[in-house]
Structures are given as structure tokens and as C-alpha cells.
Amino acid sequence: MKMYDVIRMTKDYPEEKLVKGQIGTILEIYNADNFEVEFCDDNGFTIYLGTLSKEWFELLD
Q: Which residues contact 5 (CB under 8 A, 6 or more apart)?
């Protein structure tokens, strides 16, 4: 995985109001397991910006 890769949530993360299938972008790589990611709404406004481990998402082609 690299910066600006597009990802998809693979399970719900209710504490952060993220749901399975939501699409986001990797903005920073902290290590092999942890990434700074951003999820935006349909208008381009950030709805989540934070660190997620790769157990929560998959890389899209």
C-alpha cells in the first residue's frame, strides 16, 4: 500500500461512524499496519480523518 491508494472498509467501525463498503484514501503510512486515512461525503467534506489499522480495510484496484 502507498499514499493516495483508494481503500474500502471491510467492516463497520461504529465508534467512528464508518460503515462497511465506505471508500477512503490513504494519506500517510505510519508502518506496515497503520495508516492515516480520510473518508469524505458526496460533497467532498471530510467525515473521518484518522489512523486505521489494515484490519479495517482493503485496497481497491
A: 25, 26, 59, 60
Q: Cα–Cα distance between 43 and 57 in angstroms, integer?
A: 22
Looking at every residue in the chain, the average pLDDT score rounds to 96
Q: Among 56, 57, 9, 2, which residue's Cα sits nearest to residue 32? A: 2
For 23-32, what is each residue's pLDDT tens digit?
999 999 999 9
Residue with cell 503510512: 29
What is the second-level CATH architecture of the domain 6-59? Roll (2.30)
pTM, two decimal places: 0.91
Domains of the chain by residue range = 6-59
